[in-house]
Write a structure and sequence with these properties.
It is a single chain. This protein is about 40% helix and about 15% strand. By secondary structure, it is of the alpha/beta class. It has 2 domains: about 150 residues, 3-Layer(aba) Sandwich (Rossmann fold); about 90 residues, SIR2/SIRT2 'Small Domain' (2-Layer Sandwich). The strands form 2 sheets. The protein has a 6-stranded parallel β-sheet with strand order 3-2-1-6-7-8, sandwiched between helices. Helix 1 packs across helix 10, helix 5 packs parallel to helix 10 and helix 8 packs parallel to helix 9. The longest helix is centred in the N-terminal third of the chain and has 16 residues. It is elongated, with a radius of gyration of 19 Å. The chain starts with a helix and ends with a helix. The relative contact order is 0.20. The model has no long low-confidence stretch (mean pLDDT about 95). The protein binds adenosine-5-diphosphoribose. Adenosine-5-diphosphoribose binds next to helix 2 and helix 10. Pfam families: SIR2 (PF02146).
């Protein structure tokens, strides 16, 4: 059976699904993935050199401007067919969505309880206390970055998890609990290079789950997948839904 129909048939029999998404699921919305070459102004920087506490300490204005550019790119983007297909799959099958993405496209497509392992670019925190900083304060303080209202030496920083920082404990716990309780796990649009997120499919397999990967490229997880769909997410997921309809017919 060809891979799309095989995945559809498996999902139609599944009890509980875990989905792990990465930047690839937002690629067809026009948002550059983490490891694609950065475009334009930011082409000369590597994300790994910007998304770190050290980079922010060294040049807070540069890091703040990079996130402002990404936030603007996201605000102008729309969810794509992959985001909407995942909402439809979750209507048919109890689904836990764990995302590494910091954009809000899953939520804007209607997946409101996505577990955000790496935080959210839409949130702004105090660089010292970690407390949230609201939009009114940011609008009233146009400095780059704005000062924090929570600490005299604090600065506003994006509410994302930087390299070397801890992931939100509750989100991680929920994600691993879902891995222990699913019978199918899907990894979509992730290079599977960053742990602990990349460890979720193997954790699900340790609990007996069947694992499929949707990614045009092979990844370190491809060799252990029960099924690989070398397709773009925005093509694969609508095709799986269409085949799923056929499964019942
Ligand atoms: N559909 C599916 N997959 C795609 C598509 C697409 N249309 N386009 C690209 N991809 C795949 C690429 O082949 C790649 O494997 O998406 C993956 C994107 O990988 P990365 O850019 O590494 O993004 P991601 O896996 O989310 O990175 C994980 O690393 O840098 C940290 O915190 C950051 O959350 C990020 C984490």
């Amino acid at each position: 059976m060809e891979p799309v129909r095989q995945l559809a048939a498996t999902l139609s029999q599944a009890r509980r699904l875990l989905v792990l998404t990465g930047a690839g699921v937002s690629a067809e919305s026009g948002i550059a993935t983490f490891r694609d070459a950065q475009t334009g102004l930011w082409a000369r920087f590597r994300p790994e050199d910007l998304a770190t506490p050290e980079a922010f300490a060294r040049d807070p204005a540069l890091v703040w401007r990079w996130y402002a550019w990404r936030r603007d790119q996201i605000a102008r983007a729309q969810p794509n067919a992959a985001h909407y297909a995942l909402v439809e799959i979750a209507r048919r099958l109890p689904t836990t969505l764990v995302t590494q993405n910091v954009d809000d496209l899953h939520q804007r497509a209607g997946f409101h309880d996505a577990i955000c392992l790496h935080g959210s670019i839409a949130r702004t925190l105090c660089s010292i206390t970690g407390q949230a900083i609201d939009a009114d304060w940011l609008a009233a303080h146009p400095q780059e970055p704005p000062p924090s209202p929570h600490h005299p030496r604090g600065l506003a920083r994006p509410g994302v998890v930087w390299f070397g920082e801890n992931l939100p404990a509750a989100a991680l716990e929920q994600a691993y609990a879902a891995a222990a309780d699913c019978d199918v796990v899907l990894a979509i649009g992730t290079s599977a290079l960053v742990h602990p997120a990349a460890g979720l499919p193997a954790e699900a397999q340790r609990h007996g789950a069947w694992f499929a990967e949707i990614n045009p490229q092979r990844t370190p997880l491809s060799g252990q997948a029960d099924l690989c769909l070398p397709l773009a997410a925005g093509v694969a997921l609508p095709a799986v839904l269409a085949a799923w309809n056929g499964v019942h017919a």
